[in-house]
Amino acid sequence: MIWLPEAIVLAGALASLAFGVLGRRSSPRAAMDLALVFTLAALLATAALAGTVVEAFAGAFRIDGVTLSFQLLLLVGTALTLLLAREDVGAPAPATGGAAPSGGVPAEHAGEYAGLLLLAALGGMLIAAAADLLLLFLGFELLSIAGYALVGFRKEDPLSTQAAVKYVLTGATATGVFVFGLSYLIGLTGTTDVYAAGEVIASPGFMERYGRLIFLAFLFLFIGAAYKIAAFPFHLWAPDVYRGAPTPVTMFLAVVSKAAGLALIVRLYLGAFAWTHWVGASGLRESFLLKSGPVVALVSGFSMVLGSVLALRTRDVKRLFAYAGIAHAGYLLVPLAAANPSMLDQIVFYLLAYLLASAGAFAVLRRVTEESGTSDLKAFAGLYHRAPWSAWALLLFFLSLAGIPLTMGFFGKWYLLVGAAWGGHGLLATLIVVTSVMSYAYYFAVLKQAFLRPGSTERPIRFRGAEVAVVLIAAAGVLLGGLLPGEVLRTIAQAFDAAHFFGLYDGRL
Amino acid sequence: MTDGMLVGLLLFGALLFALGLYGALAQRNAVRVLLAVELMLLAGGLNVVALTRFLPAGAENRRLGPLPLAGDYAAALGQTTTLFFLAVAAAEVAIGLAAVIAAYRLRPTPNVDEMDERE
């Protein structure tokens, strides 16, 4: 019998919602712990499924290498988020009239906080497991709608509610664009199955007749999905939303949403569109991959450059993470632009490196912003004197995010570079190097404050237990991935074989 | 049942979408943006219904094989899909209005650009 990870997460979401209503008021954090237990159980269930390829519900639901590797990333991200969010419950409300970057969530809402986080994670997992356009769309919406509620979770804080409004309005617009693309794809192919749609598109004579509309559908779907990973055309929401949301939610958006958005793009792009060939108007054989490659490369390049340039100018650390996240979204699209045989392994490895380093940095950020009541760069001043070990941990995470050798992030970027060169995208490879150098500048601006500037106080910072746990897990992961990158990559490639994804597809063509 | 009708419907859908996108990007009032988004979603629904009604291209389902009433199957699929779009649009607008009201309570303006924080 298969224990479906999605079912466990759904049960966890319902259980924590019910617990929030019925549970004892005296132990508000128990709802968080309950959610965490379910997430860890789902994590075990996912790991136990490694190597399986199963289809269910007439092919709408599909477990394969891509599904499992992305679900593993989503669940690790969710577990780390829940650990951080646990500290939000019952934490003191911000003193400065509510407009602080961090602060508590009332104890009576702990169940909803945990339940919404798990529902959003479930949306992401459905995206990873869906092989049906409608199920993909529903997963996308579940993730989005739970996300809107989470961003505006602190109702008394104007920053939080304004961030929610902006997130909803941009998100709804992106949904409109996505639905419009989806309507052409479903209407022209007459099926909602991703792979069947791919077959119809690849059938002889189809692209000659409807090629333009299909390409239009791809453009709309890609741009609509780019919103979820905060890539170029839909990136403007990120800074305000990251700043206004409670810090654990910011981390969830930065890490889990981004992974889910990539799963969406991967499944749609590689499942339905990418492998189509047809005879063009000039009588030459054309390939969709060659036509769509420049579009993906354009989005990727613009995201990298815009994110890095804007990050250089900001003085708010949460906004800095948003801009850096836009650049990271650009990096993550490089393997898809420079299509090469191991692109999925590159994406998953880079996502893992990004996830771990970001989670650790957000844990430090959460404590520092709550201590100082601001997320300005100045909040980090004198961190080395107030909590030396956390400053060293921050150094490790930023080195990894910036891609300095001997950290996991370096190898992630290295694989991306190799992949870009392999796919013949010299320009993208150059952009990766240039924007990485720019990222040294903005990451080191924070480190300069932490190590070299004197703070306004020397009072030691006491980290909470869960924050320490997140920092330790993240640091261990970053070091392990940096010391044994080959082992990690091999584990990803073997246990969660991306070839399953193509094997079945190729057999059908 | 003519090609001209399909083209007309698709053009109307595209126009509706363009109108919605313009509204979503240009309007300052949050409620108007939500209305504009509704237009975009409806344009998608109209496209699906029109295309599946007139173009039963991929009616041969991979799982079920060739269907006896392939055209009807495609049309039914399109109409069901539209219902999905409508339901999701309703959910999205509901949470959008909830967010707008929550923000309005703290700072009474419906205009998105006046909600900006002063840093």
Layout of helices and strands:
The complex is a heterodimer of chains A (509) and B (119).
Chain A: H1 5-22, H2 30-48, E1 54-56, E2 61-63, H3 65-88, H4 110-129, H5 133-151, H6 158-189, H7 194-202, H8 206-226, H9 237-244, H10 247-273, E3 277-279, E4 285-287, H11 288-313, H12 317-337, H13 343-372, H14 383-386, H15 388-402, H16 408-422, H17 426-452, H18 465-483, H19 485-495, H20 499-508
Antiparallel strand pairs in A: 1-2, 3-4
Helix pairs in contact in A: 1-2, 1-4, 2-3, 2-4, 3-4, 3-10, 3-13, 3-18, 4-5, 4-10, 5-6, 5-10, 6-8, 6-9, 7-10, 8-10, 9-10, 9-12, 10-12, 10-13, 11-12, 11-17, 12-13, 12-16, 12-17, 13-15, 13-16, 13-18, 13-19, 15-17, 15-18, 16-17, 16-18, 18-19
Chain B: H1 3-26, H2 30-54, H3 70-106
Helix pairs in contact in B: 1-2, 2-3
General description of the model:
- The complex is a heterodimer of chains A (509) and B (119).
- Chain A is an all-alpha fold and 509 residues long.
- Chain A has one domain (5-508).
- Chain A has helices at residues 5-22, 30-48, 65-88, 110-129, 133-151, 158-189, 194-202, 206-226, 237-244, 247-273, 288-313, 317-337, 343-372, 383-386, 388-402, 408-422, 426-452, 465-483, 485-495, 499-508; strands at residues 54-56, 61-63, 277-279, 285-287.
- In chain A, the strands form 2 sheets. A two-stranded antiparallel ribbon of chain A has the order 1-2. A two-stranded antiparallel sheet of chain A has the order 3-4.
- The longest helix of chain A is centred in the middle third of the chain and has 32 residues, at 158-189.
- Chain A is globular.
- Chain A starts with a helix and ends with a helix.
- Residues 95-99 and 502-509 of chain A have low confidence and may be disordered.
- Chain B has one domain: Helix Hairpins.
- Chain B has helices at residues 3-26, 30-54, 70-106.
- Chain B is an all-alpha fold and 119 residues long.
- Chain B contains 3 helices and no strands.
- The longest helix of chain B is centred in the C-terminal third of the chain and has 37 residues, at 70-106.
- In chain B, α1 packs antiparallel against α2 (30-54) and α2 (30-54) packs antiparallel against α3.
- The model of chain B has no long low-confidence stretch (mean pLDDT 81).
- Classes of the chains: A mainly alpha (509), B mainly alpha (119).
